[in-house]
Amino acid sequence: MSGKSPIKIAPSILASDFAKLGAEVRAISDAGADYIHVDVMDGHFVPNITIGPDVVKALRPHSEKTFDVHLMISPVDLYIEAFAKAGADIISFHPEAGPHPHRTIQAIRAAGAKPGLALNPGTPVEMLWPLLGDIDLVLVMSVNPGFGGQSFIESQLKKIEIIRKRIDQENPGIDLEVDGGINFETAPRAIAAGANVLVAGTATFKGGEAAYARNIATLRGAA
Ligand SMILES: O=C(CO)[C@H](O)[C@H](O)COP(=O)(O)O
Ligand SMILES: [Fe+2]
């Protein structure tokens, strides 16, 4: 990474116990999470269905940390206001999910949230360049979106390196987040490539609540 931004850990609640989501969000907040990463899937853009704005609204009082909402839905624009009103601080979307990504970014800002752009492993980095000055976060998917617990796709490290260079030149200070297959072994390599926000579902929640603080500290210490 550029050496300026501290590493942030964003546990993905996809790997938490859905039967006690509020308690899980409190537990990871207390354990040192920086962002609460919420994976929203619609069964259409990705082959899985998770949660919607009402769940974000219900979880919001359980943590004061940044709610980092990753939309894997199509269309996006129809739901931006609902997620922003529910308490999303950052709203990321995939450019393939609609015809006008710049309009979507404007709509996210108008709704009072910070826009993020998410790139699938097969999405060329060039899709990002015209929009880099308009966003607050780049999310590099290091697995194909839809499921937790998948293996890290190595080729995304090069993409992170390329994006880090361009961020430092054009929009320094924005987050470069890596999402998918992050564990104690891949975390240091993602950080070395330039990521400053690590999404980690499986690696945060493994071992039960007593291990959350240690897991988060180990991931952070990977720098
Ligand atoms: O966006 C996602 C999947 O589409 C998740 O955030 C990601 O998979 C995190 O889970 P894990 O750390 O277990 O890989
Ligand atoms: Fe995600």
List keywords for this structure.
223 residues; globular; alpha/beta; 8 helices; binds fe (ii) ion; binds ribulose-5-phosphate; TIM Barrel
Largest sheet, in brief, is: 8 strands, parallel
Helix content: 25-40%
CATH homolog superfamily: Aldolase class I
Q: Into which percentage range does the β-strand content fall?
A: 15-25%
Biggest β-sheet: strands ordered side by side in the sheet? 1-8-7-6-5-4-3-2
CATH topology: TIM Barrel
Shape: globular
Mean pLDDT, as a whole number? 97
Tally of separate helices: 8
Under CATH at level 1, the class stands as Alpha Beta
Q: For the terminal residues, how far apart are their CA atoms?
A: 9 Å
Structural class: alpha/beta
Task: Provide the low-confidence segments as ranges.
Answer: none
Q: Which architecture would the CATH scheme give at its second level?
A: Alpha-Beta Barrel
Radius of gyration: 16 Å
Spell out the helices and strands N to C: EHEHEHEHEEHEHEHH
Overall number of strands: 8
List all distinct small molecules, including ions and cofactors, that are bound in this structure: ribulose-5-phosphate, fe (ii) ion
**Total number of domains:** 1
